[in-house]
Design goal:
The structure is a single chain. The protein is α/β, with parallel strands linked by helices and 134 residues long. It has three helices and five strands. Helices cover 19% and strands 25% of the residues. The strands form two sheets. Strands 3-2-5 form a three-stranded mixed β-sheet, with no helix packed on it. A two-stranded parallel ribbon has the order 1-4.
């Protein structure tokens, strides 16, 4: 039984450290991403762990960009967020993906395509950084 547990942990650890190649987006546009940290300096966040903290909202915006642009590929999860969260500890380090190994498919802050078009808007509240205090 112990050897099965060791084998399972070894396989999970190996998978955790393997690079992940995200599928290339289909369509006529590349994908850009902008990240904003909006702070409402007039409102105190009563649920923040530190009293007096102002209301804050981290926003990631993915949008169509010109596929011909050269841009800087952006990390799947930005380095400053990975540092704030810190590495997984104990058994969690075996069962969580190392997001620094996820190959990126988005560009940081590229321009919108030249032709004017309208695009759909999708709003997602994921809450992945709910425990992160910046």
């Amino acid at each position: 039984m112990c050897s099965v547990f060791v084998l399972l942990l070894t396989l999970l650890w190996r998978e955790r450290n393997q690079p992940v190649e995200l599928p290339i987006p289909t369509g006529t546009f590349a994908v850009g991403r902008a990240i904003y940290d909006w702070i409402d300096h007039t409102t105190v966040d009563t649920l923040a762990p530190v009293p007096g903290t102002k209301r804050e909202l981290l926003v990631w915006i993915w949008y169509p960009s010109d596929p011909g642009q050269s841009g800087t590929p952006d990390d799947y999860v930005p380095a400053q967020m990975r540092a704030a969260i810190g590495p997984a500890q104990g058994l969690m380090s075996y069962v969580t993906r190392d997001v620094s190994k996820v190959r990126r498919i988005v560009f940081a802050n590229p321009d919108l395509p030249a032709q004017p078009k309208s695009y759909p808007v999708v709003i997602i509240r994921a809450g992945a950084s709910a425990g992160v205090v910046g």
